[in-house]
Amino acid sequence: MAMVKIPEQKVILCGEYGVGKSSIFRRFTNNTFVTATDRRSTLGLDNFDKVYSIGDKDIKLQLWDTGGMERVASITSSYYKFSEAAILVFSLDNPSSFHTLSQHLLDIVTYAETAKIFLCGNKSDLVGEPPQITEAEIESFCEQCQSLITNTYQISCKTNEGVEEMFTDIAFQLVNSNRARLELQSMEKHGFKITQSMEELSDESCLC
Known about the structure:
The chain is α/β, with parallel strands linked by helices. Helix content is 35%, strand content 23%. The protein has helices spanning 21-30, 77-80, 95-99, 101-111, 135-144, 163-189, 198-203, and strands at residues 8-14, 46-54, 57-65, 83-91, 116-122, 149-154. Residues 192-202 and 204-208 have low confidence and may be disordered.
């Protein structure tokens, strides 16, 4: 029996250092959380695959993490290349990480122009009263992005709140996007060919 190849979608994590991108990656990889004091300082890109079943479709998300490389150098365009989705991460208890999102958004649309963009506010467990970043500010940012943001999430890697739901929804969005693309390709392959009718041909004047 022939094996069915599961479509693989590259998903990248983007945002300032310290917002929790690697914590999101660890939750995705092995559902663990490492505190700052226990975390080892490592540099280097990393990726991990996980299959999600969405309705009658299976999709493999390949999540990429910068591994802290944004501290020492700009991420090269190869990190963004072939990305189907980008998770734009900020920390809900750090306004400066939110206010620098526009630069990371510019990098995404420049180097991964076809990628769907998802906005993720991490560290919801640290949000005080009143919150440092309000819902109105998040909505205003999305409006300024002119429909570039596909969806928004608020999660906590420490408590694991909303993390799996976020990735399931991203998989759902990508499945729907690919299904539409395949249907469009099918229409192009079996499209209608417009030809003149015999009556139209008979009405044409003689060219002799």
